[in-house]
Amino acid sequence: IPPSALRPTAFRIFTKKHNLTLKSDALQCLADYLGSKLGSEWRVKGELVLDEIARAWKRTEGDALVNADGLKNVIKAVDVPHPARPVSLARDLTVQEDVSMEDSSSSQPNRDVDPNRYFAVVDAFKQPKYIYHAARRHYEASSTPPALIALASHLPQLWRERFDIIRQRLGRNEAFQAPTFSGGREKNSYYKITSIKNLLGRHGQEFMIYGMLTLGAEGRYWLEDGDDRVLLELSETIPGPGFFTPSMMVLVDGTYTNRGTFQPLSLGHPPIEKRAISMQNFGHVDFLGVGFEKEFESHMIRAEHRFPNLKWVFAGESPLDNPQTLKSLAALFTYYEERADTNGVPQAIVLTGSFTSQPFHNTGQSRSYKSLWDALARLLSDYPTLCVQTHFIFIPGPNDPWAGAASGGGASSLPRGKISEFFTGRVRRAVKSVTFATNPVRLSWFTQEVVVFRDDALARLRRNQVRFPAVLKTAASTEDDVTMAEAEDDQEEADTDFDACRNLIRTLLDQSHLSPLPLSTRPVAWDFDHTLRLYPMPTALVLVDCSAPTWEVTYEGCPTFNPGSVSV
Questions:
Q1: CB 481 within 8 A of CB 420
Q2: 10 Å Cβ neighbour count for 155?
Q3: With 90 as the cut, is the pLDDT of residue 356 above it?
């Protein structure tokens, strides 16, 4: 469609009806879209579609000046098959015919829907940053782009946001809501959170307080909220399930002593909020920047159901300098290549680092590291169907450049940048669709959000967890000749591997964060802390943890699993 032919209709809908101004590149974008979508019928049905796009633009973008870049995301969301809204009652019949045509074709799974078009790999450094405002109780897009070297004032903002996000989550939990009328629940049937500053002068009374667990310079633990802090006496405290380390947000139930300290009887993680509830409140916020609109959610779910056999494969850690890894990958690729005609190939195959067994050093290792990727490219060239139809995703690990060169395979800052094109040029030429992603990375498909993270989280949490004397005493009392150090070891060994994995997942999801550890233990780029959040809870979580056994656990409706290492 020539833009000049579309201009009068677009002007009538966008400018006169919705008070929007179309830039020339946006008009060209609309002309291209309507031409491919409606063809010769654009004069009859084009007004309906333009009105739908204009309404979607006002809901998501809000800017009076319509540009091509933003319009493409809006069109992508609107283009999911759904009945268009009528411009006037005179066109109701036309819309009803469109609806009946959609319903009658629901048995055709692939009609007008390309599943690859709605598949996106979200780079952590390009993920939009939304700031939660506790006073307004909503998210706002950050007015300044995040920077790797952030201002000092951004550090307290990092902790404030972690605190406020979980605090507002607690406010919606029924267990923390007081009855709204006198004939409601009894006083003891709900929990009341008291701020730390309100403990003053109320010695000997029991309270529940919420805050961040911190370790003081003297080696004692404190609890801090937005107003004050109080010293904790953990001698008789029984912790709830999960791991507890400094910097975590916790709920503490106990007594305020006449010494000005707080003696907890129990300490636990804040209860989680399911994804469906979070999306009811913040579903209008496009946290991933993929152009998702809450209003089209039902239509996108309907489109998802048209692809019941679509597959993603997560292969775990793949050290390419281990011969067993290449054998395992060859067996994996052969399995799907041979079944491509009958079962179809996976939409995506995700391989996770470290891609070398030894930490990368930039003193003579570049050539050998590049040769590992060249060997993988030669292997992939034997599977032409996968190379053409499957999207390959590679996520770096602790030994990969460039973090491995600085940290020696230890704790590097999060998020991790992608592997340089210098090493991966041959793989990029061998595979038609390939992404070298960040760590962590988020995969978006229609309404699905899958978080993939490579980290030895279980080992880190075990090394840094708080030791509770009451638990150690219980372990010591079972055998009189057991020393305190042995009892501490027994406490770790008593948990089965499965229980430890469940506690790991519970900790991360309850904390709504992939790395709820002190920044001195696990550095995080302050301005990119939002890329590590697990709020709203993702559709699924893939945590590649080589310090833990493989697992598959569903916690509060969120499937999580650890594929382990390909070489094992």
A1: no
A2: 13
A3: yes
